[in-house]
UniProtKB/TrEMBL annotation:
Membrane topology: Single-pass membrane protein; Single-pass type II membrane protein
Main EC class the enzyme belongs to: transferase
Protein name listed in UniProt: Methyltransferase
Gene Ontology MF terms in the entry: methyltransferase activity
Record's keyword annotation contains Nucleotide-binding: no
Subcellular compartments: Endomembrane system; Membrane
Entry's family note: Belongs to the methyltransferase superfamily.
UniProt record, GO biological process: methylation
InterPro entries, per the entry: Put_SAM_MeTrfase, SAM-dependent_MTases_sf
GO CC term, one of those recorded: endosome
KW Glycoprotein (keyword) present: yes
Length: 165
């Protein structure tokens, strides 16, 4: 799957250095990126099961985080954000936050020309596709096969580099 992502992003291996998996589970995305020269921060949402021990056992970095709050990092730190069902998790959680709040935090921590890959429920994908241009993200929609061999819509967003002249 990661190799396919790389082809769809159409970037050199060295253009992406800092990666964040926003819903890491046990670090499978980071393990799959082992062949690439990247550093991956694995995040386990605080309202999900504690799987950090599985991430640490693999020798990977990880932390708990509530995506309704700002993440403790400098702005524009990451070249790639991978979001696997983060939005639907917070919508189904009783104290969920707004989709726009999560996207705003993602926009803060992604570098200009950085990528955001979003896998989620179709209703969330549709809302994100509509909102992304308001954050100055270019959006591409791809139909990919998931781990259950079913086709799902995956969004590839790229933050536009802009300047006031």
């Amino acid at each position: 799957q990661v190799n396919h992502y790389w082809r769809l992003m159409n970037v050199n291996e060295t253009q992406v250095r800092n990666v964040m998996d926003m819903n890491a589970f046990v670090g499978g995305f980071a393990a799959a990126m082992n062949a690439y020269p990247v550093w991956v921060m694995n995040i386990v949402p605080a309202t999900m099961n504690d799987t950090l021990s599985g991430i640490f056992e693999r020798g990977l970095n990880g932390a708990f985080h509530d995506w309704c709050e700002p993440f403790s990092t400098y702005p524009r730190t990451y070249d790639l954000l991978h979001s696997d069902h983060v939005f639907s998790h917070y919508q189904s959680d009783g104290d969920g936050c707004l989709l726009e709040d999560i996207m705003l935090e993602m926009d803060r921590i992604i570098r200009p020309q950085g990528f955001v890959i979003i896998r989620d429920e179709e209703s969330m994908i549709s809302r994100i596709r509509d909102l992304a241009p308001k954050f100055l993200w270019e959006v591409e929609t791809h139909q990919l096969e998931n781990k259950y061999k079913k086709t799902e819509t995956v969004l590839f967003c790229r933050k536009i580099f802009w300047a006031i002249i």
